[in-house]
Amino acid sequence: xxxxxxxELAEVVRDARGPLRIAGGGTRPIGRPVTGxxxxxxxxxxxxxxxxxxxxxxxxxxxxxxxxxxxxxFEGQRLPFEPMDHRALLGTKGRPTIGxxxxxxNSGPRxxxxxxxxxxxxxxxFVDGAGNIIKNGGRVMKNVTGYDLVRLMAGAHGSLGVLxxxxxxVLPAVEQTATVILRDLEIDRAVAAxxxxxxxxxxxxxxxxxxxxxxxxxxxxGFATSVAYRAGRLAEALAAFGASEIEVDKTRVAARWTAIxxxxxxxxxxxxxxxxxxxPSDAPAIAARLQASALRFDWAGGLIWxxxxxxxxxxxxxxxxxxxxxxxxxxxxxxxxxxxxQPEAPAVAALSAGLRARFDPRGILNPGIML
Amino acid sequence: MDMPVPNQDVLARKAALVARLREVLPANAxxxxxxxxxxxxxxxxxxxxxxxxxxxxxxxxxxxxxxLKICHEMGVPVVxxxxxxxxxxGALPTADSVILGIARMNAVIETDYPNRVIRVQTGRTNxxxxxxxxxxxxxxxxxxxxxxxxxxxxxxxxxxxxxxxLKYGVTTxxxxxxxxxQMDGTVVEIGGAHLDAGGLDLLGVICGSEGQLGVVTEATxxxxxxxxxxxxxxxxxxxxxxxxxxVSDIIKAGVLPVAIEFMDxxxxxxxxxxxxxxxxxxxxxxxVEVEGAPAEIDEQLALIKKIARTHNxxxxxxxxxxxxxxxxxxxxKSAFGAMGQINDYICLDGTIPVSELPYxxxxxxxxxxxxxxxxxxxxxxxxxxxxxLILYNANTPGDLEKAEALGADILTLCVEVGGCLTGxxxxxxxxxxxxxxxxxxxxxxxxxxxxxVFDPKWLLNPAKVFPLASSxxxxxxxx
Lengths: 371, 479
Fold this sequence. Notes:
The complex is a heterodimer of chains A (371) and B (479). Chain A has helices at 6-15, 65-74, 87-90, 98-103, 111-114, 117-120, 149-153, 187-198, 224-237, 250-262, 283-290, 314-318, 332-337, 346-359, and strands at 20-23, 37-40, 47-51, 56-60, 77-78, 121-127, 133-137, 162-169, 171-172, 176-183, 204-210, 215-222, 244-247, 272-278, 294-298, 303-308, 323-329. Chain A starts with 5 loop residues before the first helix and ends in a 12-residue tail after the last helix. Chain A folds into 3 domains: 6-172, Uridine Diphospho-n-acetylenolpyruvylglucosamine Reductase, domain 3, CATH 3.30.465; 176-262, Alpha-Beta Plaits, CATH 3.30.70.920; 264-337. Chain A is an alpha+beta fold. Chain B is globular, with a radius of gyration of 23 Å. The model of chain B has no long low-confidence stretch (mean pLDDT 94). Chains A and B meet through strand 7, helix 7, strand 9, helix 8 and helix 9 of A and strand 9, helix 8, helix 9, helix 11 and helix 17 of B.
């Protein structure tokens, strides 16, 4: 089913007789597999409002991410939270939609510095499980009118409502990007170096570590003279971690951060891929417990990508830790057997279940996807 | 502003309630003497007052939990209170409610520089969070004007903003975890020093829920390294429209100032008489502040000045020293105090799309003239959060009501142009009955469904946020 208007979509949901599997571009089969009639959002397409002078863009949920990014680039702006493109890692073909970016709170390396997709979402329109059309938030940056359902919808993977429209705060693109690279650090030293960089006043907007190449990458963005100044100062400040190299070539810098964002290193490698959000300084100890085939660190250590043999119960191996682990790539069997999302403490789980029961009383929207 | 009729049954059980609360709280933490409960009869919206049944001042999460459990069992409404600085009546009691003051819980639990977070008890004031880390070069970004007094608990309840949120965001963007006590006493831990939710983003809906979903007793907040420097520039214009256009051009040019503050002539005149900041007498004035490395500041200010010059400013003043920077901010920071010297005023808090600024300012002028009142505008222009100050005379009968009616008209206008009723102060009781201007019944129903889940008996701060008619059925079932 591919409704073309919000009203049609509301009718489809209201009249549904069984579960619905909500699909944007179909590039991210994440979560417990959902069986149900496919409800595509691609029919709801188009940027409905873009005011560069107000840093605001509103788009229908099915609008292609690439169209949004092109419109922004034309005005020298961008989505600050740098959404990941999952296609290489997951081996999928479709074209990602902006609604799915919002529904999965999809953020990349810059999240550590500026915030996640949820932080840049100003408003949503959605259809709840009973077919009601609901709006929340709006198109302005400061808005505390009523409860914040915008963030509740961000990362709900369609399980509380089908997004029909999303408003974003956008930011200016930058003149220059540079990477300060440290080499041959063990993970504990790399995490310490990234913490020092993030705690410096030099506005680092990316901090990633690749244990296979031994490279620790720190990104600086802004006006060219300022980036040059800050890169030099940052390298000085990190002298205790060894000599650094400063990478400024536009193509190489861009390729490096795209690869970090999309975890392309694991694209062609066998195994399941897990994504862990942890307290950054816990990263070395957690990494040791993972016994993974390969690891990548982003968000100054706060985001760990782990490649493990197929079917590994990583959470079982890890035990309790402050944070959460999500299964991102695995066979349908593994995704049916293991919880894709971190099981919640009973009191939290009760609240989540209560919200699902209220927003989707019949349990028809992507049922079970977040189990 | 109507409030629900107090529940007589609850009033009748006051002695039993106080006795039970004293079983779980220290003697000096339960206040039931009417002479003392009067201290809690209002918040920053002081036109509305009502003494509570009693007030409690728990000192730990366990005490909050024990006290809430008793109130839950006895069906007694609870109104959480941070420092009582709400301008929207968020902490206004009803006669049958218990005020739960969080002021005794003000400790720093942990500062964690490697992870750039601080864990505090939420009675701690906003400014003293920065105070705990600034010697080490860090700060807490959200900076509401009341930051000297306001508590983190209230900041979380109202999702408070401030002057610098164009760059740093508001409370919700700087909050990583909370300990939440539900009305039935259940203690829930959400989030922590890691980023983003593993499941549904409950933290996101708790922040800004005006104390209606639970009492937040501890919070993990993001702290940031202080920038190398910051410098403001002051630009005067001969019309509001031109100032508005300049704001838009600055943003479009790729500069991201940390603050863009706007003042109009009535506001400039009043603050100048009060604070003598040396502001130019003109129709509109912008204070634009940028920060970063010295080179970055120079580059951004050069660009801002270049853009400003294309709008023929009547004044363009750059600060050459710390002292001059302070002087530029002096007038803006004393604006509210200055207006208070010369008039009674209502401070509005609507947000509009920045592009609608000139139109909205013109319409506000026309509407104000229609009521025969005065208005002064001072606001965060970068994010469209307006604070029109409606000037009236409290001693003139009917003036307050006229001012309130004008306020409602202005907020309705904000919604009509694509904005909202409140940008950072919250709904409270003040804007409760205007919610239907911005939201459909289905929109409000979805929000109330969240409260149903967290507080099924509707005992926490029950008569706020939603129009009384919309929430009546739920509150009655609870009683």
